[in-house]
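not sure who needs this but someone in the group chat was asking about Major facilitator superfamily (MFS) profile domain-containing protein from Gossypium mustelinum so here u go. i didnt clean anything up, its just raw.
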Amino acid sequence: MPLCYYRQHLQKKRERQVFAAPPEEMGLSSSSITKDPPATPSWFTPERLLILFCVINMINYVDRGVIASNGVNGSIRTCDDKGICTSGSGIQGEFDLTNFQDGLLSSAFMVGLLVASPIFASLTKTHHPFRLIGVGLSVWTLAAAGCGSAFSFWFIAICRMLVGVGEASFISLAAPFIDDSAPVSQKTAWLAMFYMCIPTGIAVGYVYGGFVGSQFNWRYAFWGEALLMLPFAVFGFAFEPLQLKDSEASKLHDNILVGADSMSVDELKKTSKSVNIHNMLNQFSQFAEDMKALLVDKVYAVNIFGYIAYNFVIGAYSYWGPKAGYNIYHMENADMMFGGITIVCGILGTLSGGFILDRLSASIYKAFILLSGATCLGAIFCFLAFCLRSLYGFLVFFALGEFFVFATQAPVNYVSLHCVKPSLRPLSMAISTVSIHIFGDVPSSPLIGVLQDNINNWRASALILTSILFLAAGIWFIGVSLHSDDASNDRSESQVCTVTVDNGTPLLYGNGDESSYEA
């Protein structure tokens, strides 16, 4: 008999010996021996979950558009050669910020996102993800309200950091939930619907921020978005939580204690304390192992490097786009123009990328082909757009460029979800989000601000920025040649259950003693 079958036989024999007596005779209730799998919440359907996450994602990115809009961001105080000065407007005018400081303000949320994303991803193994989302959205709501009440540059910068903390809880967990719930043949399309809310939210933020800032005051824009997010923060606490598939949070609650009737209360307390310390050490160890698994994965690394270069451009477009359009083409309604183009092209491009990949029978190899091709075409059209002198020519070519650029949203996140094991998906999305921000759109806004301060030519700055899209296309093209299997179908990790049997000793997962057997 092979060793693995012998172990299974011995495991079953010992289990029969342990559980032969009724639970009551062992001093335990039936519920302590077996635990039913968590029931699906009554409110849950896949469609409702998708709509819920799309609305939250939309509000999250409306905030990005608000702070970049001319109505909220405003302009600095300027003086002409004759000494005649015009007062500034919005945040930049009220706090007298340079372009560099203004760019830093747009990137301040990254500090919170960087710190909180890995923490929230790791906590999914011990806490309900929906509760974590509720905590994060509560922080986001308070921080957005704080932005509207800011009295100095540093106060609003700290509030922007806390906005990043709130975003971290949601952005790393939403995609795995959607991937679990979506029909098999429509997974990429569902992801496309979710990520479609990014350009749409930013565009709505341009329009909303421009209108509120010009008609009322820039502070009301932040207070309004805080009120919109408040019901969803309450939802995370008030409703029955939904559990991720292959999540270890529920497994940790299913540990079995056998022979506890012979232990005193003090012994149980000491055992519980030692178990908590042991679990904390295990969490740190597991996090280190998970990080190593991501960093050595070539497919994941290439995907993220391309995504960083891509997001460097998109981040600067979203922040400086309205201001560049106003200065290059003298757009009277730059917020409305860029907002309208981004809404239409963002929706059409993002949905098209997802549906095309599904029609091609989605795979990592085909996703890389779509990523490199769409990004290259988008770079060509956007570069030509900024070369043109005509406003109408610019609008046509820039719209085509944005269509192709946004077609990458679903494929790039499909690769991040499917090149790793199911249990690594939250951490994969968290590290992806942190990386594209800390190396992408966070430095891009202040760096383009510094570039513009030095060359004082918005057209040249836009062309230099757009050329980086060609680099992103080249990096993703490298992924086409890599061997890439879909690791999301690997369920072997959830098929191992370690049970320890020792009279008078708690049975715990993975304590590594001699009486542990794998089934």
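also Residues 45-77+86-241 form a domain with the Growth Hormone; Chain: A; fold (CATH 1.20.1250.20). if thats useful
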